[in-house]
Amino acid sequence: MQMLIAVLVAFSSGSVIGYFGRQFLATKQMETAEGKVNKIITEAKDKAAEILLDSKNKAVKILDDVKNEEIERNRQVNRNEQRIVKKEEFLEKKSGEIEKQRIVLQEKAKQVVDIKEDIKRIKEDQLNKLEKIADLSKEKAIEIILEKVEKDHKEDVVKKIKDMEQEGVDELKKKANDIIVQSIQKYSGAHTAETTTSTVNIPGDEMKGRIIGREGRNIKALEQATGVEVIIDDTPLTIIVSGFDPIRRQIAKLSLEKLMSDGRIHPARIEEIVEEVKKEIIDKVKESGQAAVSDVSVVGLNPKLVQLLGRLKFRTSYGQNVLMHSIEVAHLSASLAAELGANVTVAKKAGLLHDIGKAVDHEIQGTHVEIGRNILGKFGVSEDIIKAMQSHHEDYPFETTESVIVRVADAISASRPGARKDTLENYLKRLEELESIANSFEEVEKSYAIQAGREIRIFVTPEKIDDLGAAKISRKIADGIEETLNYPGEIKVHVIRETRAVEYAR
C-alpha cells in the first residue's frame, strides 16, 4: 500500500513537473516569437520611413524641375513676345514706307499722264499749224506722197510685188506639194468607191407582176416592212427603190433580190425575208465599222460609235461612198500630221469621224457637222478630236493644227479626179459665178472660166488700168472668190493686160 502510494506520488510529481516544464517551454517560445515579430515590425517601420523620405525627396525634385521648366517657358514666351513686338514695329515701319512710295508713284504717274497730254496737245497744235501753212490735211498729204511714190516708182513697185508674190507662192507651193504628194503616196487606197444604188434589176416583166401581187398586196407588204417606196413603172427590167434612209433602201434592194432568187413571193415570205436581211445588214454595219477602225488602226472608240461609223457604208455624198471617203481622210490626215509634226492620233481619229453626223442626218435636224459634234460629245470623245473635225467645212474657226490638216485631207479626198460626180447644172453654175465675180469690176473687158473652173482668165481694158492696177485687181477678184464661193482646191486668177500699137506705113 505504501509502495502504491509512493508510486502514485512519484507519478503525480512527475506529471506536475512535466506540466510546468511544458508551460515554461511554451512561454519561452512565445517570448522568442514576439521578439521576432517586434523586430520585423521595427524593420518595416524603418523601411517605410526610408521609402517615405525617398518619395518626398523625389517629389521635391520633380516639383523643382517643373518650376524650372515653367520659369524657362515663361522666359521663352517673353522672348517670343518681344520678337513679335519688334516684327510688328518693323512691319508698321515698312507699311509706312510703302504707303509713302505709293503716294510718290501716284504723283509721278499723274505727272506722266499730264506730260503725255501736253505732248499730244503740242503735236496736234503743230499738226494744225502745218496743215494751215501747207493748206493740206494729214490724210491728203499722205495720199499725195503715196501717189507720187507710186507714180515715180511704179515699175519698181510692180516688179517688187510680183517678185515677192511669185517667190512666196513658189516656195509655199513647193513645200505644200511635197507634203501632199508624200501623204497621198503613203495611202494606197482604191481610186473608185462603191456607190449605193436604188435600182433593182429583174429577169423579166413577168417578175414585175409577181412582185406587185394580187391587188398590190405583195408590194404593199414590202413597203410596209422596209419603210421605203417601191416604184414599178414602164422602165424595162428595172424596179426603183425610193427612200431617204440608205439602210432601208439597201434592205429593200437585198430583200427583192432574195425574193426573186427564192421564187416564193407572198406577204408572209416577204416579212420573213425582210427580217433576215435586216439582221444581215446589222451584222454588215458592225463588220464595216470594225473593218474601218482596224484599217486606220484606231483604238478606244465606243462600240456604238463604231456601229454608227459602219452605217456610212450605205451613205454617199456626190456619188462618193462616205465610209471610204472617211477612211481615206483618216489616212491622209495621219500622213500630213506626221509630215508637219502634229498629233497623228488626233488627226487620224478626227479624219475618220469627221462625217459621222451623216450616219443619222436624215433622222436628226441640223448640219452633219453639228450632229457629229453632239454624237462625239455624247460618247466621250476628247475635245481635241472634236475641235479637229468640226472645221472641215469651215463652220467653226480653225483652233488647232489638226483642224487645218483634216480640212486639207477632206479637200484632197473630195477633189481627186473621179472621186465625186457633179451635175452639169452645178458645173455650169460654178463657171457662171466665177465669171460674174470677175465681170463686176468696171476695168474688166471680158473673162473666161476654164479647166473646169480651176482657172479664170480676165482681160482688162488697158486704157482704164495700168500694170500695178492689174496686180491689184487680180488680188481683189481672188478675195471676192474666196468670200463668195465654196470650192475644193484652188482657183487661179489670171489677169491679162495687153497693149497693142498699130501704125501703117504708106
Describe the SSE topology.
Blueprint lengths: L1 H133 L3 H15 L1 H33 L12 E3 L3 H8 L4 H10 L2 E3 L6 E5 L3 H17 L4 H30 L6 H9 L4 E2 L2 E2 H19 L3 H10 L14 H11 L4 H7 L11 H15 L8 H16 L4 E7 L4 E6 L6 H18 L7 E6 L9
What features would you describe in this structure?
It is flat and about 190 Å long. Among the domains are: 199-415, Hypothetical protein af1432, CATH 1.10.3210; 424-497, ANL, C-terminal domain (GMP Synthetase, Chain A, domain 3), CATH 3.30.300. With 506 residues, the protein is mainly α. It has a 3-stranded antiparallel beta sheet, covered by helices on one side. Strands 6-7-8 form a 3-stranded mixed beta sheet. Strands 4-5 form a two-stranded antiparallel ribbon. Helix 15 (467-484) links the parallel strand 7 (455-460) and strand 8. The protein has helices at residues 2-134, 138-152, 154-186, 205-212, 217-226, 246-262, 267-296, 303-311, 322-340, 344-353, 368-378, 383-389, 401-415, 424-439, 467-484; strands at 199-201, 229-231, 238-242, 316-317, 320-321, 444-450, 455-460, 492-497.
